[in-house]
Structures are given as C-alpha cells and as structure tokens.
C-alpha cells in the first residue's frame, strides 16, 4: 500500500529467457502428468537433439514437448522437425503471453506456466515403428532409473 495515495502499487516483473523456459517446462511436465504421462526433462535423443520434455504414456505412446521461451527462441531455432521421428505426438509448449500465430500449425500446442498447462491444439498422432518404440522405451526406463538413483545428471 502506497502511504501517500492510499492505493496498492503494482510491480511488473520481467522474466529472463531461462526463467521463462524453466516455468513453461515445469507446467508442461505437470500437464503431461495430469494427462497420464510420465515425463522426463532434458532427454537426449539418438540424433543428438535434446527434448525439453519427453513423456511416456499409459499405452506406451511417446510425446515430446519443445519449450519456446519467446518469439526470438522460436524464430532462431527451426529444428523441431528433427524430433518427429522420435515421438508419436509432438507439441510446442509456450507461455500464455507467447504470440501463438508465429508457431507452425502442424504440431500440437500447449500453453503453460509454473503451475500447469492446457492443450490448445492436439498434436497429430503419428505412430512410431515398433523397433524404434522399443528402443526409446528401454532408453527412457534406463534414464529414469538412473536419475532416480543418481540424480538428474545421469
């Protein structure tokens, strides 16, 4: 409360790109849990890319969420097609204030903050080949077990 005017003051906080990325990643992971998936963060893929969120669904389906912290991040990084061979569903995850009209229309769209998220556009379902699904699921399980024992650095 401002002592002179008797009114409350509003402070606007601008977050850095890493802070925004962290909050959107957290919210996207929470949403994946709400949808019945088991998410892991920052997962290396066989092609050298790193998925921000890779989630394993109740029927073995694999979803990837690529977090974009802002327009600059999206426009400078057009590698999202490199993730498609490693998932059944691919989503962009962005903050509520992200200008969504910049995003490609093909992938799914998640809007998230630190507390959760919502799927605004469902990702197309493109089933993985059985051998790749098995290899990815095994790698997911081994990574999750390693992180459970040794921490997130494994």
Description:
This protein is an alpha/beta fold. The chain has a single domain (17-150), classed as Trna Endonuclease, Chain: A, domain 1 (3-Layer(aba) Sandwich), CATH 3.40.1350. It is built from 3 helices and 6 strands; from the N terminus they run αβββαβββα. The chain has helices spanning 17-34, 71-76, 130-150; strands spanning 38-44, 50-56, 62-68, 89-94, 108-113, 116-121. Strands 1-2-3-4-5-6 form a 6-stranded mixed beta sheet. Strand 1 and strand 2 form a beta hairpin. The chain starts with 16 loop residues before the first helix and ends with a helix.
Keywords:
6 strands, globular, Trna Endonuclease, Chain: A, domain 1, 6-stranded mixed sheet, 154 residues, 3 helices, alpha/beta, 25% strand, single chain
Brief digest:
This protein has 154 residues and is an alpha/beta fold.
> Approximately how much helix is present in the residues?
25-40%
Strand elements, count: 6
Order of helices and strands: HEEEHEEEH
| Average pLDDT score | 92
Assigned CATH class: Alpha Beta
Strand residue percentage: 25-35%
CATH architecture term: 3-Layer(aba) Sandwich
How are the strands of the largest sheet arranged? 1-2-3-4-5-6
Quote the CATH topology: Trna Endonuclease, Chain: A, domain 1
- Biggest pleated-sheet summary: 6 strands, mixed
């Amino acid at each position: 409360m401002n002592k002179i005017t008797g009114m409350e003051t509003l402070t606007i906080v601008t977050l850095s790109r890493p802070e925004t990325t962290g909050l959107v990643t957290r919210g996207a992971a929470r949403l994946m849990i709400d949808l019945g998936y088991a998410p892991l963060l920052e997962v290396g893929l066989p092609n050298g890319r790193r998925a921000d969120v890779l989630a394993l669904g109740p029927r073995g389906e694999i979803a990837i969420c690529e977090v974009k912290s802002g327009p600059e991040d999206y426009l400078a990084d057009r590698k999202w097609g490199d993730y498609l061979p490693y998932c059944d569903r691919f989503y962009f995850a962005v903050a509520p204030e992200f200008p969504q009209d910049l995003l490609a229309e093909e992938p799914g769209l998640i809007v998230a903050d630190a507390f959760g998220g919502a799927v605004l556009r469902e990702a197309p379902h493109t089933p993985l080949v059985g051998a790749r699904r098995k290899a990815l699921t095994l790698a997911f399980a081994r990574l999750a077990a390693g992180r459970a024992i040794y921490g997130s650095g494994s």
